[in-house]
Design brief:
Helices cover about 40% and strands about 25% of the residues. The chain is α+β, with helices and mostly antiparallel strands. The chain has a domain of about 70 residues. Strand 1 and strand 2 form a beta hairpin. Helix 1 crosses helix 2. The chain starts with 14 loop residues before the first helix and ends with a helix.
């Protein structure tokens, strides 16, 4: 796969989609249990009962519209264990994630 252009398309979502995106983002950010640094991005973990897979998937679907340079991977562990979201990509993704999502 060729490297996608590294820019956000701020016009990719309608106003109502952007509002829903912001709602989901705020809810997901406040319930994150752990952040792991990866070679080419970050992994975010939530307790299985603390987050809806549908909410994570909906957020990813919206994020993909404006930031097509990310790779996403959602994993749900057995027995209602943790939910993980990996956000990775090419050069520049880690600094962008640090700045955009306050990852330290």
């Amino acid at each position: 796969m060729e490297n996608a252009a590294f820019f956000c398309d701020m016009q990719a979502m309608s106003n109502s989609e952007r509002e829903r995106y912001q709602e989901l983002r705020e809810e997901l950010e406040k319930t994150i249990q752990e952040i792991k640094e990866l070679e080419n991005g970050y992994a975010f973990r939530w307790r299985g009962e603390a987050v809806s897979l549908l909410d994570v998937a909906e957020w990813v679907e919206k994020e993909r519209k404006c930031c097509s340079f990310f790779d996403f991977e959602i994993a749900a562990e057995r027995e209602r264990g943790p939910v993980w979201l990996k956000i990775t990509g090419g050069p520049g993704v880690k600094p962008f994630l640090r700045a955009e999502f306050g990852v330290r």
